[in-house]
Amino acid sequence: MIRDFQKTLKRRALKAGAALTPDVAERFEAYYTLLSRWNAKINLTALNLEAGDEAIDRLLIEPLLAARSVTKTDATLIDIGSGGGSPALPLAIAAPGLSLTMVESKVRKSAFLREAVRTLGLNARVLTHRYEELLADPAMHEFADVLSLRAVRIDIRTLTGLQAFVRTGGRFFLFRPVEGKEELDLAPTLRLSEAIPLVESLRSQLVILEKRRVGRKNVSRGTSKDLTP
Fold first, then answer.
1. pTM, to two decimals
2. 163 and 189 in contact (C-beta within 8 Å)?
3. Which of 13, 38, 73, 215 could disulfide-link 20, Cβ–Cβ 3.0 to 4.6 Å?
4. Using CA atoms, how far apart are residues 95 and 115, in angstroms rounded to an integer?
5. Helices (H) then strands (E): counts for the chain
């Protein structure tokens, strides 16, 4: 665990221009402490949780900044491949009206996520499945306002499948690196809304896609979007 965690957290939030309330800061520390304890037993993250700046920026500051883009106070969010809990848990802390569903296929990681939900008192559930296993469940069809995903690489087939969880007019929050002039292949039913820089030192960004309804004649092929800020 980082010495002077609150001091480091506040410094990193200030540098990123992120507002940090005392309640959010306290719950971020509770999450980070739990993550550090469990990470010593099972591999939840490859980040050095003792080092400070990079781990806090990636795990906490990025979701804190992204929470600004949650425009609906009672939004329903599904996070795919939740693993160590970020960005999903910090997003739910920073946007407390969220109803959160985390999808994680690994049993031990799911156990951590359930313990985190209990400890943090969040309105959240954990589904121990591959997301593909949930696509046929009618209760999961277009139930979410937002889908979040850490995605260094993501293809059009995956994006097309994940759309099943998101209502028309809903959004994807893709946490991605900025890698120069990069393109993202999109299904015709997805529109690039914006790409928001997150933490400068990490060269990270939040890519927001909007799910739209299109006519039959427009759904035959995908499009590529340049994500350079």
1. 0.90
2. yes
3. 13
4. 20
5. 8, 9
